[in-house]
């Protein structure tokens, strides 16, 4: 039915796009920390955003990692940040200076830090999809990686393959909380659904970086349209 994974991916993208809500966007080849995800659906649940400078910093994992260790009310010392992050002293000091410069972090007193009261995390929810023609084991491995930043994670196969997997491998998907979708040229069917994974945004560096990457990508697309 499909000559390549790319063809499968493109057709499934079009199906998702047709069914997308006004607050949802469909992105191909999203650059997550563990490699490109074939397709992500991004749901915007509020109006918060990041400045370009804030998004540029947080899109790098090391900045997101430091922010994930901070709090708006509980003060963190630089010693705590160094010991917990695993970065050396000079790296942590440099990152903190940059975060302070774009109003994400406040230094209160000597080497004591809080997330700025004026800074709010955008709440974006990711649903990830990995498209494969046959290799279900690789698909599950990639989908498990995607759960580091995704509330929902699915694998996508041609419909005939998906039906066989439901019959023979259903327990693997259920055990890993990975969804299974079958695709034809006309439509797609969700054969195995998933339970939403609740991700604590402020403590999840991978999710923070993913949100920043999406905002940068989305802004670039808007500028091209203009």
Q: How is this structure best described in words?
A:
This protein is of the alpha+beta class and 226 residues long. It has two domains: 5-30 and 37-46 and 123-192, no CATH class; 52-120 and 200-225, Arc Repressor Mutant, subunit A, CATH 1.10.10. Helices cover 44% and strands 23% of the residues. It has helices spanning 5-19, 52-58, 61-68, 78-85, 89-101, 136-146, 159-168, 170-176, 205-225, and strands at residues 24-32, 35-44, 76-77, 105-107, 112-115, 124-131, 152-158, 179-183, 188-192. The strands form two sheets. Strands 1-2-6-7-8-9 form a six-stranded mixed sheet, with helices on both faces. A three-stranded antiparallel sheet has the order 3-5-4. Helix 6 links the parallel strand 6 (124-131) and strand 7.
Low-confidence stretches: none
**Proportion in β-strands:** 15-25%
- The proportion of residues forming helix, as a percent range, comes to 40-55%
The major pleated sheet works out as: 6 strands, mixed
Structural class: alpha+beta
Taking all residues together, what is the mean pLDDT?
Answer: 92
Q: Name the helix and strand elements from N-terminus to C-terminus, one letter apiece.
A: HEEHHEHHEEEHEHHEEH
- Distance between the ends: 38 Å
Strand order of the largest sheet: 1-2-6-7-8-9
- Which descriptor suits the 3D outline? elongated
**Cα Rg:** 20 Å
Query: Please, how many helices?
Result: 9
- Give the total of beta strands: 9
């Amino acid at each position: 039915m499909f000559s390549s994974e790319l063809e499968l991916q493109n057709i499934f993208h079009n199906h998702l796009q047709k069914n997308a809500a006004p607050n949802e966007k469909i992105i191909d080849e999203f650059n997550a920390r563990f490699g490109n995800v074939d397709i992500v659906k991004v749901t915007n649940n509020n109006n918060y955003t990041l400045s370009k400078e804030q998004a540029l910093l947080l899109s790098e994992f090391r900045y997101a990692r430091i922010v994930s260790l901070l709090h708006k009310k509980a003060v963190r010392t630089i010693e705590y940040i160094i010991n917990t992050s695993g970065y050396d002293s000079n790296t942590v000091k440099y990152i903190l200076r940059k975060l302070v410069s774009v109003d994400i972090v406040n230094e209160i007193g000597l080497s004591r830090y809080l997330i700025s009261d004026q800074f709010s995390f955008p709440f974006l929810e990711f649903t990830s999809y990995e498209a494969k023609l046959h290799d279900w084991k690789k698909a599950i491995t990639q989908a498990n990686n995607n759960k580091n930043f995704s509330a929902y994670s699915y694998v996508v196969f041609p419909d005939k393959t998906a039906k066989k997997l439901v019959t023979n491998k259903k327990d693997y998907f259920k055990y890993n909380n990975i969804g299974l979708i079958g695709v034809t040229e006309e439509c797609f069917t969700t054969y195995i659904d998933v339970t939403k994974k609740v991700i604590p945004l402020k403590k999840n560096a991978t999710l923070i970086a993913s949100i920043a990457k999406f905002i940068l990508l989305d802004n670039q697309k808007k500028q091209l349209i203009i």
